[in-house]
Amino acid sequence: MFRFIASLFQTLVASLTAGSLSLTFVLLFGGFIIPKPSSPVWLKWGFWISPLSYGEIGLTTNEFLAPRWEKIVSGNTTIGQQALEKHGLNFPSYYYWIAVFALIGCTVLLNIGFALALTFLKCKFIFTSQVALSSTHRWRIVLPFEPLTITFQDVQYYVDTPSVELCSAICSLLSQAFVNEVLETIELDEVRDSLVGIAGTSGLSTEQRKRLTVAVELVANPSIIFMDEPTSGLDARAAAIVMRAVKNIAETGRTVVCTIHQPSIDIFEAFDELVLLKIGGRIIYSGPIGQHSSRVIQYFESIPAVPKIKENYNPATWMLEVTSKSAEAAHGQDFAKIYEGSILYQ
C-alpha cells in the first residue's frame, strides 16, 4: 500500500501526508481500535475496505472457533463465539478463507496500481539544487559543485618512433607477460577467465574482488602502493588470502603502505614495519615490528607503567590498549614525547 502511494504521489511531502492519512484510516476502521459494533452506521463501509479488518477476521475466527474454545457457557453459545460476538466479529468459519483471499486480492490490486502508476505517470524529480532549462525545453538537474581550474606547468611530451611493427609486437609481448606476472602475484591466475559478476550473487567472491582491485592498481606498475584497510568486510580466512597477495607484492621489491583496522596476529606480523599514530597525528612508534612482534613488544614494555603482554595475546590489540588516551591519562604519560626522546627516534 505504501509503495503504491509513493508511486502515485511521487514527492516526499505528498507521499508522507497521504501515507499518514491512509495509515490512520486503516487502523481506525480495522475493527480493533474501534470495534465494528461501536462504529456509526454511516461508517460501516470503512470496516469492509480496510485490509486490517480481514486480517483480524482471519485471525479471530481461526482462533476462537477452534475446539479448545467450544465449551458451552449459556444458550448454546461457546466461549469462543461469545468472545467474537463481544467484538462484533461473530462470522462463520468460512470467513477465514474470505479473509485470506481478500488480503491476497488487496496485495494483487495494490501491486497492479503500483505498476500502472510507474508506467503511466510522469516521474517528478525534486532536488534542493539548481534546475536549468535546456534548449529543447526539457528540465535537467544541475547538481551543486565547486568549479575549479587546473593548470599545467613545464609539460613535456616525448614519443620514440621505432618501427611500428617492432614496437602493436614488443608491447604486446611485454604487456601479456606483465599481466601474467600480476595474475600470479595476486594469485588470480586460476580465475583469469571468470566474469566479475554481481557482488554477493555471482562471479568472484568478496576477497577475489579485493585482490582484483589490487591487481588493477598493480598493472600501472607503481613503485609504492597505498591500501586503505584492504581486509575490511572480510572474514579471517579471506583476509589472510588478501594479505598473502599483498605480501607477494612486497616481495617483488615494491613498497606497500597499509592501514589496517583490528588486525589478527597473523596479519599484523605479516608486516615489516609499523607507524603508530596517536590522536592528533603524532607518532608513537615508527620502526620494525620484528619476528613475532618482538621489536614492538620490547619497545613498549621498556616504558615504565606499561603492563607486560599476556601470553598468546594479540600484540596489535595490546599495543592499542596500553597506548590509549585513557592509559596515558592514568599514568601521566605522553607516548609521543617518549618516542621523540627514544633511541629508536634518533
Write the layout of secondary structure elements.
Blueprint: H1 2-9, H2 12-28, H3 44-49, H4 51-64, E1 72-74, E2 77-78, H5 79-86, H6 95-120, E3 130-133, E4 139-142, H7 170-185, H8 206-218, E5 224-228, H9 236-250, E6 255-259, H10 265-268, E7 273-277, E8 283-288, H11 294-301, H12 315-322, H13 325-331, H14 335-340
Parallel strand pairs: 5-6
Antiparallel strand pairs: 1-2, 3-4, 7-8
Would you mind describing this structure in some detail?
There is one protein chain. The chain is built from 14 helices and 8 strands. It has 346 residues and is mostly helical. The longest helix has 26 residues, at 95-120. The radius of gyration is 35 Å and the shape is elongated. Its main location: membrane.
Short descriptors:
elongated, 14 helices, two-stranded antiparallel ribbon, 346 residues, single chain, mainly alpha
Describe the structure concisely.
This protein is mainly alpha-helical.
Order of helices and strands: HHHHEEHHEEHHEHEHEEHHHH
Q: Mean pLDDT score, rounded?
A: 82
Shape: elongated
Helix content: 40-55%
How many runs of DSSP E, i.e. beta strands? 8
Strand content: 5-15%
Instruction: Report, as a whole number of angstroms, the end-to-end distance.
Output: 70 Å
If you compute it from the alpha carbons, what radius of gyration comes out, rounded to the nearest whole angstrom? 35 Å
Per DSSP, the total helix count is 14
> What structural class do the secondary elements suggest?
mainly alpha
Largest sheet: 2 strands, antiparallel
Low-confidence stretches: 125-135, 137-142
Major beta sheet, strand line-up: 1-2
Subcellular location: Membrane
GO molecular function: ABC-type transporter activity; ATP binding; ATP hydrolysis activity
Organism: Turnera subulata
Membrane topology: Multi-pass membrane protein
